[in-house]
Every structure is written in C-alpha cells, then in structure tokens.
Amino acid sequence: MNGPAEPSRASREALSLTAEECRALLPRAGVGRVVFVDVRGPVAIPVNFVRDGGDIVFRTVPWASVVASRVAGPVSFEIDDLDHSQRMGWSLLATGELNVIDDPRDLRHVELLDLWPWPEGPRDRYLRLEVVTITGRRVTFAGSPTD
User: What is the set of domains in the chain, with CATH numbers?
Assistant: First the structure.
C-alpha cells in the first residue's frame, strides 16, 4: 500500500548558526524545555520563559526537581521555531548555570518581566539560566538568507 509521497528534501539544507545568530533568534518570550539531570536521569520539562538580557528566566514551584538539580552541574534550555508544513525551522540550545532568584532587588526586577506561567497554582520560584554557550541549527531552503 502506498502512502503519501515524501516531500522533496533536495531544496533544503541544515545550517549551523553562530552564537550571534542564535542570540538574535532567542525570542523575548515563548515556550522552551529546561534540560537537566535528576535522580531519573536526563529530563526535559517544557516551561514558558522570558529573555532578560542574554539570560533566560522562568517560574516554577519551589519543590520542582529542576530546583534541586541545579547543584548537579550545567543546565540547558532548548527552544524551537518550526514550520511543519514547510519542513523548516530552527532550534537553539543554551547551556549555563541555573540560579534561584532570591535577592529582593532581582526579584522586583523579574516580577516586572510579564512572565505568567500557563498552569494554575503558585509558581513563585523564579529561576535564571545565565547562558554561557548557545548553539543552533536552521533547516531552510538552499541559498536562503538565515534571517
């Protein structure tokens, strides 16, 4: 039995992005996945976030496993923008140190960033990923500009 024809890939290419291109693509707000290691092993949890300068800020519950895992080493954050119908898009992976924001002055600052978690309930623990490295790839039509 024949299924639908596979879309042509001949006119698309995968390109590595520079750190500068990645930072330019990093959205002001959106949904991404925080990636860390806990007792289960590698974990990726979707969260909504905002960009604060070059850092990524999100909110969670105080007892979240990501809060406990931050002492285990680097944490990553993955963000995509995909067009499934065109089979194109980009993906970024930011890695750095995750910190609980508990300084009163910093808390006042992030509380003004318009960061509202999607799930109901108290998500009053603010976390900041201080991005150290950022890498990315883009799948686009061959010969297309990267922006």
Answer: 13-136 (2.30.110.10)
